[in-house]
Design goal:
This protein is mainly beta. The chain has one domain. About 5% of the residues lie in helices and about 40% in strands. The chain has 1 helix and 8 strands. The strands form 2 sheets. Strands 6-5-4-7-8 form a 5-stranded antiparallel β-sheet. Strands 2-1-3 form a 3-stranded antiparallel β-sheet. A hairpin with a 5-residue loop joins strand 1 and strand 2.
Length: about 130
């Protein structure tokens, strides 16, 4: 069983951005709504006129949990780890790990970085801003 993401036609631009160190999100041409995860239509107005934009990679912690018991053996060496919902500055929300600490508070600012898993896949991760 592979735990690596499997890019689809809809998500490929996102994963290509991650591999090159750029966080990308979809924006609606008609109403400028920022959305993630990628979809074929705007969630706000329904148009299919969507473009990909680069995000600055900065946000704040919306919510989080600290995982103390690994859900699968492959994650056992990583516990404890933080899974968080991050509100990005551009107006969309993403789930990602916060690396480097388990001492987290809602509202703390974070910066996104990328953890390379292989030649084509890099995962967006967050770290607390100093």
């Amino acid at each position: 069983m592979s735990l690596l993401p499997r890019p689809t036609a809809e998500t490929l631009p996102f994963w290509e951005g991650c591999a090159s160190g750029e966080l990308r999100y979809q924006a609606c041409v008609a109403c400028d709504h920022a959305q993630f995860p990628p979809r074929r239509h705007c969630l706000r107005c329904g148009t299919d006129e969507l473009v990909w934009k680069p995000a600055a990679g900065r946000g704040v912690v919306h919510s989080f949990t600290v995982v103390h018991r690994a859900p699968l053996p492959v994650f056992k060496a990583q516990v404890p780890y933080v899974i968080a919902l991050i509100d990005l500055a551009e107006g969309f929300r993403m789930m990602m790990n916060i690396r480097g600490t388990t001492d987290i508070r809602i509202g703390q600012p974070v910066t996104v970085f990328f953890e390379r898993l292989n030649d084509t896949i890099a995962l967006p991760q967050a770290r607390l801003e100093e």
